[in-house]
Amino acid sequence: MVRQHVNPLSRFYQLPRPLPRPAELFAEADLPLHLDIGSARGRFLLALAQQQPHWNHLGLEIRRPLVAAAQADGQALALTNLHYLFCNANVSLAPWLAALPQGLLARVSLQFPDPWFKKKHHKRRVLQPALALALAAAQHNNHELFVQSDVLEVIEPMVEVIEATGCYARPSGDARPWRLNNPLPVATEREQLVLSQNLPVYRVLYRRTMAQPPTLVELQQRLAAPLEQTAEAADNPPSSDAQP
Ligand SMILES: C[S@@+](CC[C@H](N)C(=O)[O-])C[C@H]1O[C@@H](n2cnc3c(N)ncnc32)[C@H](O)[C@@H]1O
After folding, report:
1. Which CATH number applies to 24-115+126-232: 3.50.30.10, 2.60.260.20, 3.90.79.10, 3.40.50.150?
2. Residues involved in catalysis
3. Which of 29, 98, 108, 131 sits CB 3.0–4.6 Å from 22 for a disulfide?
């Protein structure tokens, strides 16, 4: 039986795993690469890889049995543009991204990440500031970053982190705060379930701008700033007799 969740901060999942280079994963390693973080059982990428043969598709997943099953599905169909890897994206992805050939990472998707609702568990959420910066450093102008979730309190901090990098913009004309539809032609398993229950899905498509990524410290300061300003404002409310 596959566990519902694993704790990504436990010692086992904190062990770095060197990930194979694209040349070891795909028949044509120089095709544009789509990276799906948290690919679970992998059926989304399995369908997409067949619909988009001129892309390579890589799923990363922390629950190893799901990776084995997904990889077997791809092999059964002899798909040479699809691969799944077992890893903790927060531990093993950044060094792999840093070594990627320039310009390859044309699309990243992060769909319905585990919510980890309790505040003390927020640090288990996958989109941490360091990961957002590693993605921004690996993506080039106009590359896509697509995020979606059915949980507002999960997607809002993701949007905050991505926008605080200063490296991504929404395509002009996209509805705000959430896109009206999915830009990808395949729905994930979680997405299908949510839609079948007529529940809302919150989506944003970003495109990489030419901006230089900040350092991690700068990004953390940007993320902390609104809170500090809010706290400061609460400590020093304007006096009621202040002139307009
Ligand atoms: C709620 S599921 C959504 C799966 C799929 N994206 C979908 O939309 O149907 C989130 C997935 O992310 C995986 N995951 C969570 N943290 C991860 C991490 N740090 N690295 C890689 N995968 C992770 C979980 O094991 C799980 O399979």
Report:
1. 3.40.50.150
2. 114
3. 29
